[in-house]
Amino acid sequence: RLPILAGAVTFQDHPRQMIGFVLDNSARKELEQRKDDFISMASHELRSPLTALKMHTSLLRRQLAMQGFQTSAPALSSMETQINKVTRLVEELLDVSKIQAGRLEYRQETVDLDALLREIADTMQQTHPSHSILVRGAVQANLMADRDRLGQVFTNLISNAIKYSPGAETVEMDLEASPETVTIRVRDHGLGIPREQRDKIFERFYRVTGPKQKAIPGLGMGLYIVAEIVKRHGGTITVESAVGKGSIFTVTLPKKRDTLD
Ligand code: ADP
């Protein structure tokens, strides 16, 4: 009777394992959903107090100026900088949860890409005087795109290039156009990204592990949002990198598109 018993055990074991797997999976999905809901709720809840804080600091600035309290200006500026930082994080959290829910909306407008990229480089240069941001080449193209969202892509890439390049001051943006596409390369000479982690950096909340990277603040949302926006504009983003030498992020966008996906 032993062989039959053995067969029976094998027969009964399989369905049990399968049921276990299905339960595990649905529990994990529920947990993921709760996490997504929490991120969405938290970012919405944080938005209104931040708006109030912003309004009150600007009111305070005007009142202090009228009363001649110039000595308080540095403290106020520092408050405004911190409020802006938290606002950006909350906006990114909101973007992440909208992407997850498939609700990130895009405007459609004609965008002068060359002008947009130069404007971003100028703004980044003004806010980061420690680095030189060079723009080389040109892309004479009017794209059907969401200007703000596309701007977010390159602001983010340049901001990362600066952030992950302690001690390497030059960031280059190379622009190139072909009859069908435009290519924008953002190049830095900083930390670089280990080969085995290069694909993962576009995942939600992923940060490269390593003592140097850990010392630099961030939540791993930027590139996830960047990749989504590029995809919605029909483009691609890739990365080349050498540890200790630097990274190149390449965005390619189609010139002609009647609508966004
Ligand atoms: P964050 O910078 O907030 O961590 P991102 O999504 O923008 O999030 O980037 C994900 C990770 O990819 C970063 O944590 C960093 O380790 C790595 N990374 C991004 N850009 C660069 C870069 N230019 N050089 C080196 N590492 C980078």
TrEMBL record:
Coiled coil: none annotated. The keyword Magnesium does not apply. Residues 41-257 form the Histidine kinase domain. Keywords: Kinase, Phosphoprotein, Transferase, Two-component regulatory system. GO terms for molecular function: phosphorelay sensor kinase activity. It comes from the Bacteria. This is histidine kinase. The chain holds residues 596 to 856 of 856 of the full protein.
